[in-house]
Structure prediction request, 281 residues.
Amino acid sequence: MTRRRTRAFRRAVLPAVLAAAAALAAGQDLVAPPPVQAVEAITRPSRDVTLSFVRSGQIARVLVEDGDPVEVDQLLIEQDLAVEEARLAQMKAEAEDDTRVRAAEAQLAQKRVDLRKLEEAAKRGAVTAVEVEHARLDVTISELSLKLAQFQREQAGRSHEEARLQIERMRLKSPIAGLVQLVVAREGQSADALEKLIRIVAVDPLWADVPVPMETAAALKAGAPATVSFVGPGRDGLDAKVTFVSPVADAASGTRLVRVEVPNGDARPAGERIHVWFPNP
Prediction:
């Protein structure tokens, strides 16, 4: 028996032996639990994202290289922003300019003064009712002009925000903390929309999708403990946990997919084979 199989056998059998000894010592009836069998799986990153721009453009800066660690919201790649930043400045100036609003307010104030004077003159019979009615219409039109000026300024503010958001979409930032797996973007390159430019992965923790017999999977739920050992050189007996149990079984193999989260403080690469044990129900 190889050393690896010996370690696996000890992990599988030793707990049952110790439990049996404890039961005998306590004078209890011994009922042997069913054997625990290891299930083989392959680790993968717990997060794996590939980033692209949503519109075509020339790449101005590439700030990371393959293998670099990155944090959430760290800037990775940026397109040429010269035209968009000029437009943003224009939109900002229009959004902050209140000249039209102040002019409309002044015009409305004047029309209200004119109306008041005509109404007073009408009481003395100095002006006709038609002139007063025209003055009232002028006030109404000036009120609408003020509302239109205010609305246009609000729209300018929205256009400014739209331009700002458009610039943000021309900057690729990392949505996760992890490592740069691959960068294909180069400065000066023209990138097409949705072209895959950079891949970010998180390998601590690792995930493994384990095909577990339905009898065992039926007793598992998110948060349940598991034990993991890497095939080949590496740590044995790592404490892991279940994060997901598939609600759909595979009838052909009689298994259900169980996702296990494996701590990876040693920064082992994803893609290694592991053995997974689950406790007896």
The radius of gyration is 36 Å. Helices lie at 3-25, 82-96, 99-123, 129-168, 214-217.
